[in-house]
Amino acid sequence: MLYTGLNKLSDAYNLSYDSALKNTQANLDNFNGTKSELDALNSQAESYKETLASIAEANNIKIKPNDSIDDLYEKLNTADLSAAENSQVQKAKRASDEAKRQAALKETLAEQQHKLSASDARDALNMGKQSVAQKVAQEVPGGKRTYQGQVSNVNVVDATMENVAAIKEYEKAISELESKQAGYDPGSSDWKKAEEDINSYRTAIKTLTSDLDTKQNDLSTLLASFSKDGEGLIAEVGYEEQFKSVKKALNSVNNMDLSQEDQWQQSINDFFDGTTGKNFIKDRLLEAAKSGEDVVDVLHNMGLTLSDLGMTGKGKGDAFRNYFSGLAESAEEAKESISGIDGSYEGVQEAFTSENAGDKWTSMAGYIDKAQQMYEEGKIGTDDFQAVAQWMSPQKITQGDYATEAEAYKAAWEKSYTQVKRWFDTDNPLDSMHNFAADLEATEGTVGKNLVDIDAATGKIVPKFESTAEAAKALGVNTEVVDTILHNMEDYGYEFDGIMFSGEGMKEYESSLDGIKELYDSMSDGASKDRLGSLIEGWDENYATYTDDLSQLTEEQIVHIKFEYDQASIQAQIDELEVLQKAEGGKNSETNAGIIAGYEKYIANAKEGLGLNEEGVELPVYFKTSEDTVSNLYQQLREAEEGSDEYFEIQAKIQNQEELQQAMYDEFSEENPDINSESSPEEINAAWENFFSQPRSLVVDARLGAEEVDAQLEQLSNGSTITFTADVNGVEQSVTAVKNEDGMITYTTEINGETTEVQLNKDGTVTYNVNSNAVNGYKPTDKDGFAKFSPETSAVDTWNPPTLPGNIVFVFNHKHSKALLSHNYIAG
Which DSSP symbol is given to 716? Predict the structure, then answer.
């Protein structure tokens, strides 16, 4: 009777698990189906974009790689298109809008389906089936036979771990029995008993292995449901623990037949899964290995342990160190392999298949000859002829006063052809080169009466111009022309290391600016996005200037915008992690570690880009002090209990310190765009000294406490400010700290539309005084905060105090003081 009752309970439990898993799979299938439909819609949208782009290119309309369909449509809708092309544009736009509408619906549906799948997966994980490992344990030698109903129910994760442990135990038992059996007489009872036991263990392993196959499928379904986009790579917010436990169980199955060393390596590979935060951590550890730091210590400094990576057992630390030292060695070998000509057959083969610097000259010389032939035939309306004419012309060719646009191109050709042909003569390439050099020597520019000096005896050419745009402006041709000729001269052994190729530089500038704008659009609102938006405005103005006069573009400006593009790319990834961190309440050490590593990468890149790593350059005291603070926090983190509130608070403080450093590097970069790693140590040191001699204005999203803010401002000049985030009545908002001329620090924030002086507390909360009129006169009634106030008894009815949100502390002597407490006021 007992057996039957237990069986019925077990059956009910099993049905619950199976039902939850079935629902999980159904919702996951629905999600994947919707996701496929969404991919198809996005593919359609991309095809419409390609259609619009091809029409734009056919009509010589300038487009950018990151132009959206709306951007392309706006450019095409105002262009002079044929009726057929215009119809095609309108059709593509309508189809695109419909695809966009459907995609938005599909995204919403997919999100709902995935949430349902995750919820059902959580239910399944909280249920279970009778333990197969516990059943099998009763059948092996020494196992105790009991009622089936007394075998406990376990969830799929625990069941998997039990199976793996049992298989390892039984394999070890088989190995020991086979060793013993080898010493027995094959016909003896001992040999037969050993054989019986071995077969029993093998049968058990077969049962467990079969069960593991099923559980692996179940775990894969659960992992997909607990992960973003169903890909099994990143945990869905709110399901981090479930994701982690399921992943661990799957790894235990996959690693079952591996040696201890291989298991450690697999654990490392599984942890560094290519996601943003993990990439930051891996990059930081690789740099640590290259510089000789202990990678285990560096991992701990970010708030992670080897156990977080799934590594257990003696020797795991050395295995982790060996892994990254191997990566460092491989990186160095790869660097050496591409450092130059290596003398190998493969190197020769690659050299002959790659482009030479002068290949473009050869092509353009041929195009010029073909265009001249078109000119002679009167084919001045062809895009071939006009493209070459525009390539030679220093300005954009427009119709102007000419009867037709073709006539304008004809005039531009006649103005430039004779001169340019001297430099692009296919029959006389050497003469072409010498002709160009002679023309440079004879041309007066901003550098003086000649653009180059030529040594008649040696033929050595010494340029006196700094950019090809400068030379092109003096010669009256397009910068592309000069770029192409100088590259051709490089094939003959000439070197122009000190010359900026302006045409190529402009493309780099434009590419970086487009990339930055794309990053800006993807970033969440905050201090970083605000800063980038302000920089973009300045870069747009500069771009317009360079478009009119390319000689204004300098090498330093190109280096600076490329540097800021690199920094913005890192920041955009940090922003993604900070959104996740906020959703997790800052309670996920892996996410926090990824952000810390991200900021460390940002700071390391800033040091390199702003010249602080150069020999003879002194790191400013501000950064030394901040880095010492971070080092102390690392030590505190190692001593704190992992996963405790204190642990997460220390990680947050490290993040705050790094964000403040980042803000300081950013402000220096904005004010000193010409300082980079190529600047002299004297220039770099002087720039930093001047920078810190003036008041600074830092803006960060970090939530700071009084001690952190005070410590920062103590190092800065009077008049400096820090704008940060603080808790004002339970709401996070911006607070500004000002270091006044007397060295005192005051804090202000906006309260009900008014700038109000407040007090910043150690824990990052804010308190402030309520205007006495608000209390005595009961107006206005929406003031909030924490105030100490001594009212006149004639003005305040202590039995019925005014309604003021917040904590108002009335300080007075009155016999009815207890009445205040009944109204949730604190009497003092």
Answer: S
Nearest to 194 by CA among 179, 209, 204: 179
The CB density around residue 146, as the number of other CB atoms within 10 Å, is 11
- Alpha helix (H) residue ranges in 453-498: 468-475, 479-490
Beta bridge partners of 759: 767
* Residue in the block written with tokens 């073709």: 406
The neighbour count for residue 13, using CB atoms within 10 Å, is 15
Cβ atoms within 10 A of the Cβ of 572, count?
A: 20
CA angle 277, 280, 283 (to 5 degrees): 150
Question: 153 forms bridges with which residues in the sheet?
Answer: 130
Q: Output the pLDDT for position 825.
A: 36
Phi, psi of 222 (to 5 degrees): -65, -40
Q: Are 812 and 779 in contact (CB under 8 A)?
A: no
Query: Which letter does DSSP use for residue 719 in this model?
Result: T
The number of CA neighbours under 13 Å toward the Cβ of 191 is: 7
Task: Give the integer Cα–Cα distance in Å for 719 and 743.
Answer: 9
pLDDT of residue 3: 32
Residue 789, beta-bridge partner list: 810
To the question of pTM greater than 0.85 for the whole model, the response is no
pLDDT per position as a tens digit, 133-173 = 988 888 888 776 544 456 788 999 999 999 999 999 999 99
Peptide bond into 780 cis (omega under 30): yes
Tell me the per-residue pLDDT of 792-816, one tens digit each, with 9 for 90 and over.
Answer: 333 444 444 444 444 444 443 333 3
375-382: average pLDDT: 93
Among 656, 579, 665, CA closest to 622? 665
C-beta separation of 69 from 93 below 8 A: yes
Helices (H), 526-609: 527-548, 555-583, 589-609
- Those residues with Cβ within 8 angstroms of residue 149's Cβ, 6 or more apart along the chain or in another chain: 2, 3, 5, 6, 7, 9, 10
> For residues 260 and 242, what is the distance between their CA atoms, to the nearest angstrom?
26
Distance CA 246, CA 479 (A): 60
